[in-house]
Protein backbone atom coordinates (compact mmCIF):
# COMPACT_ATOMS: atom_id res chain seq x y z
CA UNK A 1 0.00 0.00 0.00
CA UNK A 2 1.36 3.44 -0.90
CA UNK A 3 1.42 6.24 1.61
CA UNK A 4 -1.28 8.86 1.17
CA UNK A 5 -0.04 12.13 -0.26
CA UNK A 6 -1.56 15.56 0.34
CA UNK A 7 -1.31 18.82 -1.50
CA UNK A 8 -0.12 21.92 0.31
CA UNK A 9 -3.65 23.25 0.97
CA UNK A 10 -4.61 20.18 2.98
CA UNK A 11 -1.29 20.31 4.82
CA UNK A 12 -1.90 23.96 5.70
CA UNK A 13 -5.34 23.07 7.02
CA UNK A 14 -4.01 20.17 9.09
CA UNK A 15 -1.09 22.12 10.57
CA UNK A 16 -2.63 25.56 10.97
CA UNK A 17 0.29 27.02 9.00
CA UNK A 18 -0.15 29.32 6.02
CA UNK A 19 0.81 28.24 2.51
CA UNK A 20 3.45 30.97 2.55
CA UNK A 21 4.96 29.65 5.80
CA UNK A 22 5.09 26.07 4.48
CA UNK A 23 6.77 27.27 1.28
CA UNK A 24 9.24 29.31 3.35
CA UNK A 25 10.13 26.26 5.44
CA UNK A 26 10.77 24.43 2.17
CA UNK A 27 12.96 27.27 0.86
CA UNK A 28 15.13 27.22 3.98
CA UNK A 29 15.38 23.42 3.92
CA UNK A 30 13.38 22.52 7.03
CA UNK A 31 10.74 20.48 5.19
CA UNK A 32 11.02 19.08 1.71
CA UNK A 33 7.85 17.72 0.07
CA UNK A 34 8.10 13.97 -0.36
CA UNK A 35 7.07 14.18 -4.01
CA UNK A 36 5.66 16.32 -6.78
CA UNK A 37 2.59 15.59 -8.82
CA UNK A 38 2.74 15.32 -12.61
CA UNK A 39 1.53 18.92 -12.63
CA UNK A 40 4.36 20.01 -10.36
CA UNK A 41 2.30 20.40 -7.17
CA UNK A 42 4.03 19.71 -3.87
CA UNK A 43 2.92 16.42 -2.30
CA UNK A 44 3.33 15.76 1.41
CA UNK A 45 3.03 12.63 3.55
CA UNK A 46 1.92 12.22 7.15
CA UNK A 47 5.62 12.22 8.12
CA UNK A 48 6.02 15.62 6.43
CA UNK A 49 2.99 16.93 8.34
CA UNK A 50 4.44 15.66 11.60
CA UNK A 51 7.73 17.41 10.82
CA UNK A 52 5.84 20.66 10.20
CA UNK A 53 4.05 20.22 13.53
CA UNK A 54 7.40 19.85 15.30
CA UNK A 55 8.55 23.11 13.69
CA UNK A 56 5.27 24.80 14.61
CA UNK A 57 5.72 23.75 18.25
CA UNK A 58 9.28 25.13 18.30
CA UNK A 59 8.22 28.55 17.02
CA UNK A 60 6.70 29.95 20.26
CA UNK A 61 9.89 28.95 22.07
CA UNK A 62 11.91 31.30 19.84
CA UNK A 63 14.15 28.67 18.28
CA UNK A 64 16.01 30.14 15.32
CA UNK A 65 15.79 28.54 11.88
CA UNK A 66 19.34 27.25 12.37
CA UNK A 67 18.44 25.71 15.73
CA UNK A 68 15.33 24.15 14.18
CA UNK A 69 17.41 22.71 11.36
CA UNK A 70 19.97 21.33 13.83
CA UNK A 71 17.31 19.80 16.05
CA UNK A 72 15.56 18.19 13.09
CA UNK A 73 18.90 16.87 11.82
CA UNK A 74 19.57 15.33 15.24
CA UNK A 75 16.17 13.63 15.41
CA UNK A 76 16.47 12.46 11.79
CA UNK A 77 19.87 10.95 12.52
CA UNK A 78 18.67 9.24 15.70
CA UNK A 79 15.65 7.79 13.83
CA UNK A 80 17.65 6.71 10.74
CA UNK A 81 17.19 3.04 9.94
CA UNK A 82 19.21 2.78 6.71
CA UNK A 83 22.46 3.86 8.43
CA UNK A 84 21.71 3.92 12.18
CA UNK A 85 23.87 5.94 14.55
CA UNK A 86 25.76 3.70 16.93
CA UNK A 87 27.79 4.00 20.09
CA UNK A 88 29.61 7.27 20.53
CA UNK A 89 27.71 9.11 17.77
CA UNK A 90 24.35 8.08 19.23
CA UNK A 91 25.45 9.28 22.68
CA UNK A 92 26.58 12.66 21.26
CA UNK A 93 23.25 13.03 19.46
CA UNK A 94 21.32 12.25 22.63
CA UNK A 95 23.38 14.80 24.58
CA UNK A 96 22.66 17.48 21.97
CA UNK A 97 18.97 16.57 22.01
CA UNK A 98 18.94 16.80 25.80
CA UNK A 99 20.49 20.28 25.65
CA UNK A 100 17.63 21.38 23.38
CA UNK A 101 15.15 19.85 25.82
CA UNK A 102 16.68 21.87 28.66
CA UNK A 103 16.43 25.08 26.62
CA UNK A 104 12.80 24.28 25.75
CA UNK A 105 11.98 23.59 29.43
CA UNK A 106 13.54 26.89 30.50
CA UNK A 107 11.70 28.83 27.79
CA UNK A 108 8.41 27.17 28.77
CA UNK A 109 8.99 28.27 32.36
CA UNK A 110 9.59 31.85 31.18
CA UNK A 111 6.40 31.76 29.11
CA UNK A 112 4.41 30.45 32.11
CA UNK A 113 5.69 33.35 34.23
CA UNK A 114 4.78 35.84 31.48
CA UNK A 115 1.31 34.29 31.17
CA UNK A 116 0.74 34.55 34.92
CA UNK A 117 1.71 38.24 34.84
CA UNK A 118 -0.58 38.86 31.84
CA UNK A 119 -3.51 37.06 33.51
CA UNK A 120 -2.94 39.06 36.70
CA UNK A 121 -3.00 42.28 34.67
CA UNK A 122 -6.23 41.26 32.88
CA UNK A 123 -7.84 40.42 36.24
CA UNK A 124 -6.81 43.85 37.57
CA UNK A 125 -8.48 45.50 34.57
CA UNK A 126 -11.68 43.47 35.11
CA UNK A 127 -11.78 44.49 38.79
CA UNK A 128 -11.33 48.14 37.88
CA UNK A 129 -14.10 47.90 35.28
CA UNK A 130 -16.50 46.44 37.87
CA UNK A 131 -15.50 49.03 40.48
CA UNK A 132 -16.16 51.81 37.98
CA UNK A 133 -19.81 50.82 37.51
The spatial strand order of the largest sheet comes to 1-3-2
Number of helical segments with 4 or more residues: 5
| Largest sheet, strands/sense/barrel | 3 strands, antiparallel
Order of helices and strands: EHHEEHHH
Low-confidence regions: none
Strand tally is: 3
Structure explained in plain terms:
By secondary structure, this protein is mainly alpha-helical. Helix 4 packs across helix 5 (87-131). The longest helix has 45 residues, at 87-131. The chain contains 5 helices and 3 strands; from the N terminus they run E-H-H-E-E-H-H-H. Strand 2 (35-36) and strand 3 form a beta hairpin. It has a 3-stranded antiparallel β-sheet. Helix content is 68%, strand content 5%. The mean pLDDT is 92.
From the structure above, extract its key features.
133 residues, mainly alpha, 5 helices, flat
Amino acid sequence: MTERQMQIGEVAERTGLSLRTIRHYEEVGLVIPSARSKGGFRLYTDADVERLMVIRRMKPLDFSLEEMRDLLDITDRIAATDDPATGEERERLRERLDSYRKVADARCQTLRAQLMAAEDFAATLRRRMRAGH
